[in-house]
Design brief:
The chain has 20 helices and 12 strands. With about 475 residues, the chain is α/β, with parallel strands linked by helices. The chain has 4 domains: about 110 residues, PAS domain (Beta-Lactamase), CATH 3.30.450; about 170 residues, P-loop containing nucleotide triphosphate hydrolases (Rossmann fold); about 90 residues, Helicase, Ruva Protein, domain 3 (Orthogonal Bundle); about 55 residues. The strands form 3 sheets. The chain has a 5-stranded antiparallel sheet with strand order 2-1-5-4-3, with helices on both faces. The chain is elongated, with a radius of gyration of 37 Å. GO terms for molecular function: ATP binding; DNA binding.
Amino acid sequence: MTEKNLLYEVLEQSNEGFLIMDAKGTVITVNKAWIQLCTNVLDFDKNVIGTHVFEFKEYINYFSVAEYIVKNKTSYSKVYAPFEDRVIFSSGKPITDNSGKIIYFVVKVNDISDIFHLRNQVENFSRIKELYIEYSKSQTNADLNPIQADPKMQKIYQKCLAISATDATVLIMGESGSGKEIVANFIHNNSNRSEKPFVSINCGAIPGTLIESELFGYAPGAFTGANKTGKKGIFEAANTGTLLLDEIGDMPLEMQVKLLRVMENKVIRRVGSEKDISVDVRIIAATNCALPQLVKEGKFRRDLYYRLNVIRITVPPLRERPKDIVALSKYFHNLFSRKYHHTAAKKVFPDQLLEQFLLYDWPGNVRELRNIMEQLVLLSENGTLDQNIFLSIINDDMSIQNRIITENVSVKQIARLDDIIEETEKQLFKKAYRMKKTSREIAKLLNVSQTTVIRKLKKYGITTD
């Protein structure tokens, strides 16, 4: 095998592409790898051997490195994508003899598609990391500065600020999912204990036989299956900080006695131990039950109720906070867009969907709104949050217009029909006002004259500012 043939075979076996031209730019040889990487013309070598590089444009539709180095008599390199699925690094240089005279031009190409894909993955990972950090920050900010667009909630948080610096026991009442734990977090985060633990326990989720050991812990060998070294309870975990006793209304009566004793004496005793342990804990209790009614029924201790009810905060349901519905919807829209990496092309939140949100009663309150918005961000297609998905989630076959007009009326006692009609009408206009604000819009919504709306709003003392 001649030296020339050997060189050709070596080039043919290489994964790197080579194009070799003489001093005038005429192609001498090109290997298989260069053809595969730089052109889709299978018989490229047959067509171009002996052809000048400036005639390449018939076979390739991009500005080549080969053309550049021949034209400018200098080295040159470039990254480009000759095809959609391929990224090439091409470098060329003139080869000179001992006197410095150019005798050849050589172009070498490498497929760096995998490197680019890897770089894109790293960049995507970095962007995902940034979005996660933004998401985490928004969660933290929500604890420190919860959404409070509605005047009712603004008054509540003003009250929370006023009491946060004290150690007064707080009783938070409100429907399930209305944001009681968020209020409790806000009080803790603005208190002198903000750098200390905030511990929450759901009193209704723990069996009565276990709640004492969960709250107060247990000594080694206290019962069969107990940890040999014993276990700290929730009170010890929350020591120097704040303890949220959620769903306090579900706590068994026998446990209520022991909780009262701890609140009064500030000491706990682990199950199976005779040693008292001092604890310094601020207690916040929360419930969706009507505790005064439970007290009357003998299901909740009166003395404990008074001990808890030092500062009482009642969180209104979401349906009574229309401005919060708007603000929270937008907040959760942004939150889940960041969480699921849709920030670059965030789905549009149409006004019509927001109107449906405002008309819906939200029986699950803020928790339900959060859940529904997360589903909408995940499931909606075509770049817009889908109203039909919302309607299917709430399983509502009625139109939104009928929903406001046919709001359920609960009749708890016999009364004059005129009084019932008047009270229902009052509720209807109040809800319509929360939605539309102007008499013209309310008239259109309820299909009555604007004069009627003005007269009814005035009759029921509903502000029209």
